[in-house]
Design a protein that fits this description.
This protein has 125 residues and is of the alpha+beta class. It has 4 helices and 6 strands. It starts with 7 loop residues before the first helix and ends in a 7-residue tail after the last strand.
Length: 125
């Protein structure tokens, strides 16, 4: 299969779909493009209820993105304990947390200058 270059919007939509498919919680998109010296353009942050669900979210994102655009993360960290898994798609970095770890590290607070978009989920309705 030919890998094709996806737009950031398409990649974000696929990642969000992967999260939604396995019922990830409290998903937000941080737009970092207006902030100087950032390592990427976007963060997507969500959480699962257990290490099993965190791993399921990561697997679902990988499968959804790979199937649609034949892309895979440049780097993944944290899968061993599945408390905080970072998936680096270069311009988009995904953080999948267990809730208590997310609360502790407060990535959203660290990036308070970013533009936040809360993602509505079918499980929250």
């Amino acid at each position: 299969m030919q890998k094709r270059k996806a737009s950031a919007d398409e990649l974000i939509a696929l990642i969000l779909q992967g999260i939604e498919d396995v019922k990830g919680h409290d998903t937000i998109l941080l737009d970092l493009r207006e902030i100087e010296n950032t390592v990427c353009d976007y963060f997507i942050i969500c959480n699962g209820t257990s290490n099993t669900q965190v791993n399921a979210i990561v697997g679902s994102i990988q499968k959804t993105v790979s199937k649609a655009i034949q892309d895979k993360p440049w780097h993944i960290e944290g899968q061993d304990n599945a408390e905080w898994v970072l998936m680096d798609y270069v311009n988009v970095v995904v953080h999948v947390f267990q809730k208590q770890i997310r609360d502790f590290y407060d990535i959203e607070g660290l990036w308070g200058d970013a533009k936040f978009t809360a993602i509505e989920s079918s499980i929250n309705q």
